[in-house]
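seq:
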Amino acid sequence: MPLNVANDEVFIVDYDKNWAMAFQEERNLILSTCKSFVLEIEHIGSTAIPNQKAKPIVDMMMAVDSLESVKALLEQLDRIEYQIVETGMKDRIFLRKHSDAENIQFFHLHIVEKSSWKNRSERILRNYLCKHSNAVEEYGKLKERLAKQFSDEVLAYTKSKTEFIQNLMNNACDDLRMPRVDVWE
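struct:
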C-alpha cells in the first residue's frame, strides 16, 4: 500500500557533514541488493549541498533502463524497507525508507529512466547550488521561515518554495545554455 507523506512534520536543521557518508552507506546497500538494475545513483536534494540547511532527509536519484520493467527491482527494494509513495509526479517512481541514523529522518529514492538522466532538474539544481554559496544561504533562510509557517503542512511548505526554486533553476539552465524547464515537471 502506498504511503501518504502529506502530514509529515516539516523541520529544518543545519547542514550535517555525515549526510554524505549516510548516502554512501545507503547507496552501497542498494547496490548490493539490486545492482543489476541500477545504471546510476546519486545524492540529490539539500542534504547533498554543503552548508545547506535541510529537512534531515537524504534524497537519492537512481537511473534504470525503463520504468515499465521495475517490478523485480521494487521487490528487492521492499526487502530493504523501501515503500512506494504516491506523489503524482510523472516519469518517476518515488520510494521512502525510515532511517535508523540519529541525524536522518528518512531516505527518499527517486527512480527515473536513464534517457532523462542528463536533464533531471534535481541534479541540475544541486550542481548549481554547489557552485553558488550565496544562493545556498538565501535558500536556507527561506526554508527556515517556511518550516515555521507550515510546520505540519508538507505540501504547502513545498509549494511555497516553488518560485524561489524556479528562479534558481532558470539561472542554472541559463548558465548551462539549455532550455528552461518547469520545476513542477
